[in-house]
Design brief:
By secondary structure, the chain is α/β, with parallel strands linked by helices. It contains five helices and five strands; from the N terminus they run βαβαβαβαβα. The protein has one domain (7-136): Rossmann fold (3-Layer(aba) Sandwich), CATH 3.40.50.2300.
Length: 163
């Protein structure tokens, strides 16, 4: 992630929860986008930059798990971390969320400190992942340069042996 403001998409079909979470998260300086359905969440992610998604599981028509699965199959959105939220907090539901591609699961009612801590944690992991990918690309380039230099060296050795 670069120096742009971090944008978090909050997805919930309850306007009160959208409002409360937006206020909590905005207080930490994040940009907020809201979606009240799975369909509008997918559109929002495709239309503009999203760094993290905080998404309700139970929504009409397209639930949070289905939205997450669709995001994870798209090469443009598969790296966006998704934190699920739900009143249902049994192990089966949590596992379902992880299997769908979610990276965390928060039980409702949402606690301010917990949601902020989980967001910070996931954003830190995302930043480290991006740095690791950049370093890997740099190392791959260096390896390719060394491989080419080795070929040149071998050719020079052959030339010197012929002379």
């Amino acid at each position: 992630m670069n120096n742009d403001k971090i944008t978090i998409l909050i997805v919930d079909n309850c306007p009160h929860i959208l409002s409360c979470l937006s206020e909590i998260i905005r207080s930490k300086g994040y940009e907020i986008k809201q979606a009240n359905s799975g369909k509008s969440a997918l559109k929002s992610v495709i239309d503009s930059k999203t760094d993290l998604i905080l998404m309700d599981v139970k929504m009409p028509i397209i639930d949070g798990y289905q939205v997450c699965k669709q995001l994870k199959t798209n090469p443009n959105t598969h790296n966006i971390p998704v934190i699920f939220m739900s009143e249902i907090s049994d192990t089966t539901e949590r596992i379902k969320g992880f299997e769908a591609g979610g990276i965390d699961y928060i039980s409702k009612p949402i606690q301010r400190e917990e949601v902020l801590a989980r967001i910070e944690s996931q954003l830190t992991i995302k930043k480290l992942h991006i740095k690791l990918e950049e370093k890997n690309k740099q190392l791959e380039k260096e390896i390719e340069i060394k491989r080419k230099m080795n070929i040149i060296y071998q050719l020079l050795l052959l030339i010197c042996q012929k002379v």
